[in-house]
Design the sequence.
């Protein structure tokens, strides 16, 4: 059931991507929400496809190797890994909140039709913060 659910999510992602591309080609003079709806469809479809296909591949890999499944279960429940993740997040206060607020702000600006000269630096700053947290997590993992 889980495998078919993941494939269904991936398939629905592909359909939404195709709808987005169709809307881009079919509407010659978009107005209001139709300026951004195709791109939202493409972004949402890519996210759904990536999630569904990634989960499907993960389940397939775990089914073929029971030792790997046991190791993944141990790693996700390991207190040390949880502590390392929390320490990495603690480097930037409010990191969890920032991820959601900043991504919502970026989406809002994109829907408002703000120019790319404003949005692109914000996306770069967002990716810098995420990369910074990954850097600190790997640094902390090496010290343990």
Sequence:
């Amino acid at each position: 059931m889980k495998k078919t659910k993941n494939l269904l999510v991936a398939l629905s992602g592909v359909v939404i991507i195709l709808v987005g591309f169709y809307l881009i080609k079919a509407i010659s003079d978009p107005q209001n929400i139709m300026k951004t709806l195709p791109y939202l469809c493409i972004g949402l479809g890519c996210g759904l496809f990536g999630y569904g296909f990634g989960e499907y591949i993960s389940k397939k890999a775990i089914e073929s190797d029971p030792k790997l499944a046991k190791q993944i279960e141990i790693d996700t429940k390991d207190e040390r890994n949880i502590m390392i993740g929390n320490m990495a997040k603690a480097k930037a206060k409010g990191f969890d909140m920032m991820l959601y607020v900043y991504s919502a702000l970026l989406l809002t600006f994109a829907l408002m039709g703000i120019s790319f000269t404003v949005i692109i630096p914000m996306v770069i700053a967002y990716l810098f913060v995420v990369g910074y947290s990954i850097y600190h997590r790997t640094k902390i993992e090496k010290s343990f």
In short: The longest helix spans residues 37-64. Helices lie at 2-26, 37-64, 66-77, 79-90, 95-112, 116-143. The chain is about 85% helix and 0% strand. The chain has a mean pLDDT of 81.
